[in-house]
Amino acid sequence: MEVVIVPDAKAGGALIAGAMADLLRRTPDALLGVATGSTPLPVYEALAAQVRSGSVNTSRARIAQLDEYVGLTADHPESYRSVLRREVLEPLGIGMDAFMGPDGTAEDVQAACEAYDRALTEAGGVDLQLLGIGTDGHIGFNEPCSSLVSRTRIKTLTEQTRVDNARFFDDIDQVPHHVITQGIGTILEARHLVLLATGEGKADAVAATVEGPVAAVCPASALQLHPHATVVVDEAAASKL
Ligand code: GLP
C-alpha cells in the first residue's frame, strides 16, 4: 500500500485526476469505478477541467457505480445514480450508455446485486476504483464487520452512517436503511484502488486502515491485501499516522 500525504483536498483531487487522465490516455475505454460523497468532488472537478481543456478524452471511458440506496428511484435526486450523473458523468461528458450500476429498485434486490457483480467481471473488471472512507472505516457501504471476501449484496446501514449521510436529505427519516454495495472481495478485484480521505474526522479511520491489522472491523484495512492500492490523505486525515 502506498500512502501519499498531500497538503489539502484540492491537491489530492489533482493528483488522482492526473492518475485517471493518464489511465484514459493509455486505455481510452478504461472502466473507472467511482464513489459518491463529498470527498471525491475535487477529483471530479480536476478531471472535468482536463476534459474541458482537451488534455484528456473521455469519449470511450466507462463508469461503474460502487454502491446505491435501496428504494430510491433512478430519478430521485439523492439516488447515487442521479448523484453520479450530476457530479461525474455530465461534467466529464460521458453518457449514461457508458454507465453501469445496480438497480436499487429491483423487485429481487439480491438477484440485481448478483447480476451487477457478474456484469463487472464480464465488462473486463474495473481498471481504477476510487474510494472514499466512512468515519467508521467503511468503503462503499461495507460497514464494519463485513466479510473481507464479500460480493455485491444488500446491507443495512449503521445509525452512524445514516447520521453522516442525513445532510444530503431534508430529514434523517428519509435516509434509506438498506443499500446495495459492491462487496469487499468485489472491490479488491479492481486493478488499482485509490482511496482519498480528507479532514480530521477521517484521521482515526485512516490510521486503522493503514496501520491497524487487516480486520473486518475496519473494512478499508482490506486495501492492505491489494497489490496496487494508493491511499491519498491530506495533512488533517494523516494526523494520527
Ligand atoms: C457514503 C458512501 C461512501 C463514501 C462515504 C464517505 O457512505 N457510500 O462511498 O466513501 O459516504 O462520504 P464523504 O466523502 O462525504 O465523507
UniProtKB/TrEMBL annotation:
The active site is at residues 67, 136, 138, 143. Residues 12-224 form the Glucosamine/galactosamine-6-phosphate isomerase domain. Pfam families: Glucosamine_iso. Its EC number is 3.5.99.6. Pathway: Amino-sugar metabolism; N-acetylneuraminate degradation; D-fructose 6-phosphate from N-acetylneuraminate: step 5/5. SUPFAM superfamilies: NagB/RpiA/CoA transferase-like. One of its GO terms (molecular function) is glucosamine-6-phosphate deaminase activity. Signal peptide: none annotated. InterPro entries: Glc/Gal-6P_isomerase, Glucosamine6P_isomerase, Glucosamine6P_isomerase_CS, NagB/RpiA_transferase-like. Keywords: Allosteric enzyme, Carbohydrate metabolism, Hydrolase. It comes from the Bacteria. The keyword Hydrolase applies. Allosterically activated by N-acetylglucosamine 6-phosphate (GlcNAc6P). The record marks 146, 153, 155-156 as: Part of the allosteric site. It catalyses: alpha-D-glucosamine 6-phosphate + H2O = beta-D-fructose 6-phosphate + NH4(+). Belongs to the glucosamine/galactosamine-6-phosphate isomerase family. NagB subfamily. Catalyzes the reversible isomerization-deamination of glucosamine 6-phosphate (GlcN6P) to form fructose 6-phosphate (Fru6P) and ammonium ion. This is Glucosamine-6-phosphate deaminase.
